[in-house]
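Pasting as-is:
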Amino acid sequence: MELRILGSLVCMVFLTSYESTLAHGAEEAVRQTLVIGSSSEDPSPLLVNLTEKLRIVNGQDKSDLAFQVRSWCEHSTNANDVTFLLSVFRKGETKYNGYLTEAVIWGLEMLKDRRAIRPLADRLQELEVRGTEGEDLVGALNALAGADAVPIFLKVYAKKDWIIKTRICEAAAKIGVRAKALLPILVDTLELQGEDPMVRCAAATALGRLEDARAIPVLKRAVRNGDENENVKTSAVNSLVRLNDRSLAPFLKKELLKTKLVNSFHQAAFSALQTWTLIGDLPPTVQKKVEESFRGD
């Protein structure tokens, strides 16, 4: 009996020690992976592994793998990761593989290395680039180059689809006053009723961010002439507020007085009048109706 108890105790001690060794081994493996990924002459093994999986085109949804690449690159300190992703990008593999394209562009953006600017810009200028790839390229260039990307955006804008145009307008809004070279195409975009409403809405917003008074006339026309798209008018009003142009205050009051159904344009008009402290002479019933619409949102 005593021998059995002793044997059980020895076995338990051994198992505990073995499990501890395994745990330590696992921690050490993770540690070594991180060390290799951040200090060796090779790219991070995890990044290479994810890229290899993304290279396989089999019809499966691999968006989670693309997000893993983005997440890894956001925190990576391995300079070789940039070199690795640039080599994949330059080989042209990304042209025929949407998930790999997305992952590589996102990864290069997250790594924040300016060596990626030129190849990304070159790719954006290719005529075949459309849709989400172009959208991702514009986003990456905006993040990496900022105002330095404006000449590229200016060069490609007219040749691209509504998705890329919208993203370029959004990039101009983020860049702000340093994107003033884009003002003429933003004005033309807002004026063009046939352009996609999302592009025109983004253009109206960007015009307010450029802080250039030359944008005021086109913004006023979008509001006063009753642009057929509510969101475009709303963005135009908000930009006029940013530019502190109050000349449309009487018009906005009239629009609020005659409205029966409050929409985002009326809310923007009401907020503009509040900002300009010109809300006082609106009937209480109108004020209440608009304020209730805000609560309803």
